[in-house]
Model the fold of this input.
Amino acid sequence: MVNIWTYFKQFCRPRAVCALCHGPAPADLDLCPDCATTLPANHPACAGCAEPMPADGLVCGRCQATPPRHARIVVPWRYEGVMAHLVRQLKFHDHIASARLLGGLLGRHVMRQPDGALPDVLIPVPLHPARQRVRGFNQATEIARHVARVTGIPLHTGACRRVRATSSQATLDRQARRRNLRNAFVVTAPLPAHVAIIDDVVTTGSTSHELCSTLLRDGAKRVEVWAVARAARAR
Ligand SMILES: [Zn+2]
Ligand SMILES: [Zn+2]
Done:
C-alpha cells in the first residue's frame, strides 16, 4: 500500500536551487546532478598530502622525505574550475550559502568512504581574531558546521585559537611557511583522542601540519585532515 504521508512529503518537499546553474536541485544539497559531474575530482593524489599526482597509489617526494603527522588526509576536489568559484564565493563574497554546499559535499564524501572509526570531533582551522574581524566569519568553521550536520560528528570550535597573526603565506616557500606558522596555534580545551581538522583549501599543507602537530602535542592521539579542495603547489 502506498503510504499517503510519504507521498505527500515527496510532493511538498521544498526544492533547492543549484548553486551553479540555478536549476532545481535536491532539497538537501543545492547542487543538481548535472553540475555535480563538473566538480574537479582530486584523483589521483598523493596519499600523504593530497597533492595531485600522475598515477594512483603514489606518494610525493616531500611526503617520502618527511612523512606527514596526520593519520589520514581527505581532499576530494581540486581548487580549480567550479570548485575554485564556490570557495571564492564563500571567502571573498560572503556567500555563506556556499558553505552549506561545500560542507555538505565534504561530509557526504567522507561518509561514503569510511576508514575505521569516525573522529570524535571536528576542529575548524582557526583564523586569527584580527583576520576574522575583518572577514566577519571563519570560512573553515562555516564549512565544518555542515560537515557536522551531515556526519553527526560534533563541531568543537573552542578547542584551539590562532595566537599569531601570520603574514601572507602566498609568496613564501615551504620552509618559510613552516617558520611563519610556528607556534601559531594554542589548544584551549581538553581534546578527545581522535579529531579531524577542517579547512577550505589545502595549498602546501603547512597550516594543517602546524595545527596537527599542536593537537598531537596537547592530547590528541589521531588527527585527520579534511578539506574541500587542493590547490596546485607553486613550483
Ligand atoms: Zn546545476
Ligand atoms: Zn605528498
Notes: Strands lie at 16-17, 24-25, 72-74, 77-78, 121-124, 160-162, 185-187, 194-202, 222-230. The domain at 15-230 is CATH 3.40.50 (Rossmann fold). The chain has a mean pLDDT of 89. DSSP finds nine helices and nine strands in the chain.
